[in-house]
Amino acid sequence: LVTGGVLQLNTVFGYSPIVAGRFAGAGNIVFAVFGATAVLTAALAAYRFDGRRWTMSAVVALFVVTIAIDGAPSFGSDVGGVLALVPALGLTLLLLTGRKPKLGALVAAVVGGLIVLGIFLLIDLSLPSESQTHLARLYEDARARGIGVFVDTVQRKATANLRVFTSTIWTYFVPPALMAMIYLLRRPSGRWQRLAVGYPKLRAGLIGGLVLAVTGFAVNDSGIVIPAVILSFLVPMALLVHLSMDTRAPAGEPVAVNP
After folding, report:
1. pLDDT tens digit string along 18-28?
2. Which residue among 24, 27, 193, 207 is the one 20 to 30 A from 77 at the CA level?
3. In whole angstroms, how far apart are CA 103 and each of 184, 207, 215, 234?
């Protein structure tokens, strides 16, 4: 994205000239891949380097760079991505620091997404008209023609979001992926609680990824595709955690030794 996004064309998770979904910036699938990898990278780094003074600073820096690249007008210019990333990454950061999210924190995360989007809008409006993105054009259009333009855009995206349910093969991936995650993280009984005690950082990453899948689905127009792509990263992570818990006891638990 920083160099022009040339690596997206004709890739598995990118775009093709035939589909012509987007010609600049980060599309919804790119957002899903980028966001999921940022969440899981942060969780793995926090787990691997737990206790280091610089760990959380590195996670914050990673999240800031992720949001900037995905949402800045000159890079990803992804409106929905910003609205989904800020709350999801904020919640992930809260969990990684060992704090329990409260209602006030959740509201602050949503408001934070709007504030960050507002900052990107101001940057976009400061650019020459020929360099402005769809965010600035939507704002100018709404100023000229009224709030109805914004409402129509939201309705159109919501309709597209629901229509994708019946038009993509990704729909068939989500139910088995969710069932696999539930099985891996809750069986045998008590595994989820054990994960919270022994592997809180990895648990935070899985929760953050699920939140990103939900928020990404809600504020974008690619429907079930976004949760499906994110789950394609979360399920292997859940399997890794499942196998780790079977082969190594967390701190404070005795390791079973076969006679």
Report:
1. 665 666 677 78
2. 207
3. 29, 16, 16, 25
